[in-house]
Structure formats: structure tokens, C-alpha cells
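Handout, section B. The chain below has 469 residues.
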Amino acid sequence: MWGLARQSLWFDEAFSATVAGVGWPVFWTALLVDGVHPPGYYLLLRGWLALTGPGEFALRFPSVAAATVSIPLIFQIGRQLHSRRLGLAAAALLAVNPFAWWYAQEARMYSLLLCLTLFSGYAFWQLTRRPGPKWTALLAGASAAGFLIHYFLLAFSLVQFVYLLVTLKANHRVLRWWAASQAAAIVPFLPWAWAVARREGGGFGINWIPPVTVADLPLTLANLAFAAHRPDWPVTWASVLLVGGAVALGVSAVRRSFGAQSKATGPFLWWVGLWLALPLLLVWFFSLRQPLYVDRYFILSLPALLLLLACVRLLPKRRGNLALSILLLASGAGLLRMHIEPEFTKEDWRAAARTVQAAEQPGDALIVRSVQSSIAFGYYYRGVLTPQTGSVNEQTFPPESLIGDSRRVWLVYRRPFRPTHAFAGSAPFSWRDVDDPVLGPWLNAHRNYLADEITLPGVYVTRYQLPAR
């Protein structure tokens, strides 16, 4: 909770706050038009805000709670998979993991996705050991909640199914109980799936996701482990090597601790290995056709990676302690970078709104570049002007049609941000970088009337003083 309200809400968080606060008809329309996420998180946030009221701290608190609950859950999974020692090591790695820390301080559904994945994984593993109605019901409940929070939890059900097929000889009785749990879990999701399939247009707002490259998979692993995501950082590739070496050491330690001939080694490695690799590889290959690959979606695979890294604790005592200490220090370094490097500063819509409010005058024109930006800017703006939207989807309105007789014109942009791996921030940006065929020529023609420009994290604000007409 430390520093929970320090940073401004960025666009996605402002979208969460706005949708959770509107009336029911607009609520459902907005989610269906967007289509990117199921309604579960927004329903939860809506109920929470009805109790607490709005504000950055209240908006982000459910994420803190979900991330905190995830720590004892991963401990229990590690304990059930191997030992208390493995559970404690995994819990320690999760508690200081910078990737989990970041999304624990964001008003989005990813911490809840992490928590429900762990709950589902724990219930599934118990089901494989003690098939019956109790664990079937718990797995059904966790899966049902997860399907309504994020589509990617369906990939975790696929992980479970593939694991049962791989270990079918030992788990043929479990397959019936698992199928019953998933059949029950999908029922609450079906009305939403039906509504999304029938909506007009039928597309999803994911055209901002860039195509995948071969480097994306190792970058994702380094990002999940230590928040090292930039390919031009030497620390990123050092993190890739550290993750690879630690996983290799951990696997050998597991095999040695169980014994070469133990029947427990195979299930452990198959389960954790599939949990880590299958969602990443499946989405990567699918993204060759339709890009869907974004690191934050893979927070569901983070527990598997941490469990494998935690296996270094199973090495002989001194080596195990040293290896775990190195991993914890690397995680701590990632947390430190998050608090001191500009790369981890969210879009500052709070400062953008205050900048305009401090210098605006009655009669000014206020244009916010896109409908997406107007959501984030509008969350904070309390000035006297009426913000106008410069573009909606692919349609851009000529500035002249929005300016009218105003001589002072404010333009607010959201700077480009394509977060396949990045958490926040963007490349340097100014009016010269606008490539829109409608707005770009106007900006160039009026460059001599640019009176002020303010560069903020993720946001760019300009003011023009136009000549008398």
C-alpha cells in the first residue's frame, strides 16, 4: 500500500474507474464495444467503489488485496508440490517480485488474475491427489471467476487438460471430475460470450499490439522475473541468463531431491513446466496471425516461473541459500528501478489536467486528441472549459471545426505507447511527430503560433495563440 496513490492513473486505469462509475446501460455498452475483457473485474470494482468512493487509493486497493492473498497461495502450492521449504522460497520470491508488485499497484484485473490462477492451480493439484466433489467444486468456482475476469484463464484450463492427458495413466479417474468442474465453470461465462459474439462489428480493441518476434519469449521471462524488459539494456540479457541458469539448477535440484527413480519427479516437472510454457508458446504462435502477445497477460504463468526459480532452495544448504539470495537481490534491484527510473512512470494525466486548469481562460478551446485520451484527462479535469475530442477511432475532426472563434487553443495528446513488454512511459514525442493526415498539416501550418508546450510522462500538452481574424 506504500505509495499507492503517488502516481496518476494512466489510460487503462482511468477506463476502469470511468466504466465502474457509469449507469448500468452505459456500463454494459462500454464493455461490449470495447470487448477486450469480460465484465467480472468491472463488476467487482463497481461494488467496491460503491462502498469506498472514488480515488486512486480506493481504485487500486483490490489489486493490493489480491496480490497479498497470492503469497500464501503460492506457499501452499509449493508445499503440496514438494515441501515447506519450497513453498517458503516461492512465497519470498513472489513477495518481492517487481512484476507482481507493479500490477498490485494498478487499478486493473491482473493481480486478481494472478490470485485466481493460484487458487485454481491449488484446487487442481488437490483434485489430482484426492478426486471428489470438494475439490471439483472449488476448482469450478475458481475457474468460473477467472473466466469472467480475463479470457487468458481459459489457457490455464488448457494447461490442466494437457497435464491430465500427459499423465492419463495415473489420472484417468481425475479427468471426469475435472471435466465436470470446467463444464460448471463455463456456464456463467456463456451469456457474456453470446453477447460478445452478437455485437455489431465483432472486433476487439487490440490493434495496438505489435507483431511478435523471436526475442519476445526470453524478454517475457526476464520481465516476469525481474522487470527487465528493454532489449537495449545489458541487464535484460543478464536477467535472461540468470533465469535460464536458475531454472536449470532448480530442475536438477528437484530431480535430486525426489530421487532419480521417484514417480513424483515427472508430475512435478510436467505440471510446472506446462503451466509456464504452454500459455506463452500458444499465444506467441497465435500472434503470428493476430497479435495478442502482451507480458501482463502472462501474469498467470508467473507462479510457475517462481516455483521453478524457488527450486534452487533445494540445492545443498549453502549453495541453495546463496542461489536464492541472488534471485531475491535481483528482484530487489528490479523494485528499486521501478521507484527511481523514469521508464516506470505512468502517464501523468493528473498533471496534464492541472496544467490546463492553472492557465486556462474563458473562451479558450480545449481539444483532447482522442476519445481514449479524453477518458483519462476527463477523470482529473475540473476546469471551466468543455473538452472536445479530436478523433474517435479512425475518424479525425479538422481542428477548425472544434476551435470556432477561440484564439487560445489547448491541445492534449497521449504520447505513443505500445506495451508488449514495457510497464509505462514512451519515446520522446512532440507535435512534429504527429502523422495524422488531418491534424498534422494543421499543426505544421500553425507552428509559429505555438505559445507553450509541456512534456509530461506519457502526455504532451500544447497551447496555441492564434492571430486575430
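Note. The mean pLDDT is 93. Compare this with the example in section A.
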